[in-house]
Specification:
It is elongated and about 90 Å long. Helix 13 links the parallel strand 16 and strand 17. Helix 13 packs across helix 14. It has 25 helices and 26 strands. The chain has about 725 residues and is an alpha/beta fold.
């Protein structure tokens, strides 16, 4: 399709809304794909054209922010329709992510919210109120979350939407906006909070669940309390903060996006989580006319655009919704704005074409970076600066903070080069015993037995506490008893054991039945693994458990999908999000299993749907120990000479035929899960792990990823010696 825009070709529509159509197009001059947003109006009057130009100039300034979608060009098509071109983003929107993969883990949600808070603060400082923040307007790019679709945003000094007209998506609109008040900074805070709720609920907090009219939705927004996010695995302090963002009275909400972002950083800091930077431009110069510029500070933006943060003036949002329904024809004008709620939020792209006239661009300014290690602070009211006068940016924790250059950590794209190191936070050892649930594929490999022995040895040294052992292999009645025999040998005969239920990968084992009948054990019946997972997790402190999987991911996928029960009112995913600190898995090969193995690794390939579900849906950080790691570290030969015949681990290796050294696939995962990177054996490369249709694994490197994979740092022989010493260690008693 020819859009009538010079330099663009092969346009195909990818999104249609009431006000604009988004196209995917090629820009041959740059050999790239771009997104083009074309307004549907065939023509615009001169005033609207000027407004369009002013708003897009402001967006051009805003798009320097890493969490605001990049706008490259704007102009008018041959038919006179305004368009803008943007960087094409093919990962979709947050709404797509929630629809396809379900709720987001709370640490990931907070990361997204901090990025968006920095973007919003930057927009507010330029005098721009977004007015339509919702999951469909948050793009998930290679650079992280980006705020998009400023199509109905208002610029300070520009033409107004008349008071009483609601222009927003109803489900995420604030009570005062539904009352017909002009949107303010605090209305954007409300919509960002509503978007946060959607990340946990899969919908807005007051959204209709049946095919009802918009009126009940509006009534709930005006009168009801939001759902309790603690039932969805959200910690108390975060849940309390998000409730505050949805306060009915704007004065009770966080007073700026900066304050909200800093408080979100404090939440992560309070839970010893990795804290991303909060990037905020200190000031942005906005064109109010073609030949006039002025600096705009948050407290100096007029009331229709931003809240007067020092004002005690009561707001009109205190009016009852009945006044909204019957007064002044507001219902009709509100309904006219509902069309925005049906937009699919498609955004993206770069550009070509003509550029509207603008004033000389202002000098570049360095963004404010609120670093991860900034101590908790109390938010100060910003100094009031009259429009057109120079003023100091909002005070940060220290003068050094305000002059800090932007960190590349906030904008690192996917790269072919690994982003690796010991200090990623994904495998942090804090000196306390690591509480471990081990999920094993015992019976189909002998390294599962070795890994269990290593875990017992680490428990004997006080480095670990074993909470339970699960089996992911089906159809083997001896597996649970074999594990119980090993636990009994290490003087832990009462450890709970769970076995996968329902369809699961299975296969014959040369050793489990013999271990079960040869060595002491008293296990009568193993519990269903998912039931035991829920019981054990529910009894642990929040964020305290490390799950180590060294078999198939069947149990973990079923755990995530489990409903609330008598043990816990949380869903499986909510329970994991609340109780699990990290997941360490032996599975896959990295960075690309096709390059390492030529095909998929065993643990991923035997139950592909479970692997895909667990890896994509796991709500806490996850680190994967790949085939290539354990394959380089041979261990086990010393079992036959340095341990007694009464050792079931030694006998299991002998029955398997492993009288010499064998790869330590599962042993390395256990060692890394307990000791982390502190002893210098491993480092972690961060990003995102993707499980393909055949169980293949592909890793996208990025610094701020929730996934990581192990890479050896110490010589393989040194790690092997460490593992062998643990493998042959006698029981502590």
């Amino acid at each position: 399709m020819d859009l009538g825009i010079p330099g663009l070709e092969d346009a195909t529509p990818v999104g249609q809304g009431a006000f604009a159509t988004v196209y995917k197009a090629r820009q041959p001059a740059f050999a790239r794909t771009v997104a083009v947003k074309v307004l549907t109006a065939a023509s615009l009057d001169e005033e609207s054209r000027l407004r369009f130009t002013r708003e897009l100039h402001a967006l051009g300034l805003l798009s320097e922010h890493p969490a605001i979608v990049t706008v490259h060009d704007t102009g008018f098509t041959a038919e006179g329709r305004p368009y803008l071109t943007m960087a094409f983003v093919d990962e979709g929107t947050l709404a797509d992510r929630l629809r396809d993969r379900g709720p987001v883990s709370w640490p990931e949600a907070v990361d997204i919210l901090i990025r968006l808070a920095g973007a919003l603060e930057t927009a507010h400082r330029s005098g721009i109120i977004h007015r339509d923040i919702k999951p469909a307007n948050v793009l998930l790019s290679h650079y992280g979350a980006q705020l998009s679709d400023f199509g109905i945003a208002r610029v300070a000094g520009g033409p107004e939407t008349r008071t009483g007209v609601v222009v927003a998506s109803i489900a995420h609109a604030s009570p005062e906006v539904l009352n017909g008040d002009r949107p303010t900074v605090r209305a954007d805070i409300y919509s960002l909070g509503s978007t946060a709720y959607a990340m946990f609920l899969g919908r807005s907090p007051f959204e209709r669940v049946t095919d009802e009219s918009i009126i009940p939705v509006m009534l709930r927004i005006q009168a009801d309390e939001p759902p309790d996010l603690r039932h969805h695995g959200v910690p108390d302090d975060l849940a309390a903060l998000l409730v505050q963002t949805l306060a009915k009275d704007p004065a009770d909400r966080p007073q700026s996006a900066l304050e909200l972002g800093q408080r979100l950083q404090d939440v992560l800091r309070g839970h010893s989580r990795r804290v991303p930077e909060l990037i905020v431009a200190p000031e942005i110069i906005t064109n109010t006319t073609a030949d006039e510029t002025r600096e705009v500070k948050p407290s100096a933006i007029e009331d229709g655009s931003a809240v007067d943060q020092g004002s005690d003036r009561p707001t009109r949002s205190r009016r009852r919704v009945a006044g909204f329904l019957v007064g002044g024809g507001l219902l009709v004008t509100a309904l006219a704005g509902v069309a925005l709620a049906t937009r699919n939020g498609a955004e993206g792209g770069e550009s070509g074409g003509s550029t509207p006239p603008t004033a000389e661009p202002p000098p570049a300014t360095e963004p404010v970076v609120v670093p991860p290690d900034t101590e908790p602070r109390t938010t100060q009211e910003p100094d009031v600066a009259p429009p057109g006068t120079a003023s100091t940016p909002v005070t940060q924790a220290s003068a050094a903070t305000t002059t800090a250059p932007p960190s590349t950590a906030a904008v690192v794209p996917i790269s072919d080069e690994p982003v690796c190191g010991p200090g990623t936070g994904l495998l942090a050892a804090d000196g306390e015993p690591v509480r471990v649930i081990l999920d094993t594929g015992v019976g189909l490999g002998i390294d599962d037995v070795g890994a269990l022995a290593v875990l017992h040895a680490l428990a004997d040294t006080g480095e670990a506490e074993i909470l339970a052992v699960m089996v992911s292999v089906g159809g083997d009645p001896g597996s649970g008893r074999a594990i119980d025999a090993i636990n009994t040998y290490y003087l832990r005969p009462d450890l709970p054991i769970g076995v996968v239920s329902g369809p699961a990968p299975s296969g014959p084992s040369p050793y489990t039945a013999l271990l079960a009948t040869t060595f002491p054990n008293d296990l009568a019946t193993a519990a269903p693994a998912v039931d035991l997972y829920r019981e054990v997790l529910a009894g642990q402190p929040d964020g305290s458990v490390t799950v180590v999987s060294i078999g198939f991911l069947t149990n973990l996928a079923e755990l995530l999908a489990s409903p609330p029960d008598d043990v816990s009112g949380l869903t499986g995913q909510g329970l994991v999000a609340a109780k699990v600190s990290r997941w360490v898995a032996m599975g896959g090969a990295y960075p690309d299993s096709a390059d390492v193995l030529g095909n998929a690794e065993f643990n991923m390939a035997r139950d592909v749907p479970a692997a895909q579900s667990a890896v994509s849906g796991w709500p806490t950080p996850a680190v994967f120990s790949g085939f290539e790691v354990g394959n380089e570290i041979p261990t086990g030969a010393s079992l036959q000479t340095a341990t007694p015949p009464a050792n079931p681990v030694r006998e299991g290796y002998r029955l398997w035929g492993a009288t010499g050294n064998v790869p330590s696939f599962d042993l390395t995962a256990v060692l890394a899960a307990v000791r982390g990177t502190a002893d210098g054996a491993f480092e972690v490369c961060t990003g995102r792990n993707i499980v393909g249709s055949g169980g293949s694994t592909t890793f996208e490197h990025r610094r701020d990823g929730q996934h990581g994979y192990l890479r050896t740092v110490a010589p393989s022989a040194e790690i092997a010696a460490t593992l062998d010493a643990l493998l042959i260690a006698p029981p502590a008693g």
